[in-house]
Specification:
The protein is mostly helical and 267 residues long. It is built from ten helices and no strands. It comes from Aquirufa beregesia. It is found in: Endomembrane system.
Length: 267
C-alpha cells in the first residue's frame, strides 16, 4: 500500500473515530449537561485543531526537522529500517509516551513551562476536542521530539500517519466526556476516568495523572490519583483569556494576577 493510500485511510479512520466519540459522549456522558457547542468549542476546533495544527505541521517538518535531518550524519545513529513496521510503531509509541509523561510532569512543576501548558487546562468543560487546546510552543517542542527520531532513525514513512492517527484518537479519547470503565486495564491503558481527573480544578490532582497513553507510568512513578467520585469543577483556578491570540500572548505577558506560587504551596 502506498503512503498516500495509508494517509487517506488514517484520515478516514480519524473522522470515523471522532463521530464515534461524539456519539458515546451523547449516549454515556461522564458529566451531564455539557452542550455540544460548549464555550470555547469553535476556538478549539477551528483555531487549535485545524488552523494551528496545519500551520505547525509545516513549520515542524519543513523548517525544523528537515534541516536537522539533512545536517546529521546518518552513521551516528542506529537504524530501525529493517524492523517490521509493527515493531517500529511500538518502539516510537512507547518511547515517546515515556518522554511525554516526564515532560508533562515537568510542566506542572516549572513556573516557566507551566505557562506553555496552562492553556491546555483552561477549558472548564472537557470533551473530545478540548485536548486540542495546546500552546503552539508546547506543540513545537513535543512534535519535534516525537517525529524527528522517526525520520533520522530511518523508519518506514507509513509510521508517521499511523502514529498520527493513534495519537489523535487516543488524545481525543482520554479527554472525551464519556463514562467508561476499563476495569483493571485502567492501570495499564489510560482513559477518561483518570485523565478527566487530571483536568479537574482540584489541588490533589495538580501533580497527578500525567500519563497519556499508558497509565502505568503514573503507577510506576507514584503519581496516580483515583477516586470513586467525580470532580466538582474543571479548568484553572484563576481567570484566563478566551481569545486564541490572547491565550498565546498570556504565556509571555501577564495582565492579570496569576497566583502560581500559591498553587504550588497549596499543592
Amino acid at each position: 500500500m502506498k503512503l498516500l493510500d495509508v494517509t487517506i485511510v488514517c484520515f478516514t479512520l480519524l473522522i470515523l473515530g471522532v463521530l464515534l466519540l461524539i456519539w458515546f459522549e451523547r449516549k454515556y456522558p461522564y458529566r451531564k449537561g455539557i452542550s455540544f457547542f460548549r464555550e470555547g468549542f469553535w476556538t478549539d476546533l477551528l483555531a487549535y485543531a485545524i488552523v494551528q495544527s496545519f500551520l505547525l505541521k509545516i513549520l515542524i517538518f519543513d523548517f525544523i526537522i528537515a534541516p536537522i535531518h539533512h545536517s546529521i550524519p546518518e552513521k551516528f545513529f542506529f537504524s530501525v529500517s529493517n524492523w517490521p513496521i509493527g515493531w517500529q510503531l511500538a518502539f516510537f509509541i512507547f518511547s515517546h509516551d515515556l518522554y511525554i509523561y516526564w515532560f508533562h510532569r515537568w510542566q506542572h512543576a516549572s513556573k516557566v513551562l507551566w505557562r506553555t501548558h496552562e492553556v491546555h487546562h483552561s477549558n472548564q468543560q472537557i470533551d473530545w476536542i478540548a485536548g486540542a487546546r495546546s500552546h503552539s510552543i508546547e506543540i513545537i517542542i513535543n512534535q519535534t521530539i516525537e517525529f524527528l527520531p522517526i525520520i533520522i532513525l530511518g523508519a518506514d514513512p507509513m509510521v508517521i500517519p499511523i502514529k498520527g492517527l493513534i495519537d489523535g484518537l487516543w488524545g481525543m479519547f482520554i479527554h472525551a466526556n464519556i463514562r467508561v470503565s476499563l476495569g483493571k486495564l485502567k492501570y495499564i491503558i489510560n482513559g477518561p476516568e483518570f485523565h478527566l481527573w487530571h483536568h479537574a480544578n482540584h489541588r490533589e490532582v495538580f501533580h497527578a495523572n500525567f500519563s497519556t497513553k499508558f497509565s502505568f507510568w503514573d503507577v510506576i512513578f507514584g503519581t496516580l490519583y483515583e477516586s470513586p467520585t467525580q470532580p466538582s469543577s474543571w479548568g484553572l483556578y484563576y481567570k484566563f483569556p478566551k481569545n486564541y491570540f490572547a491565550q498565546h500572548w498570556y504565556a509571555f505577558y501577564r495582565w492579570t494576577f496569576e497566583p502560581w506560587e500559591k498553587k504550588q504551596e497549596d499543592s
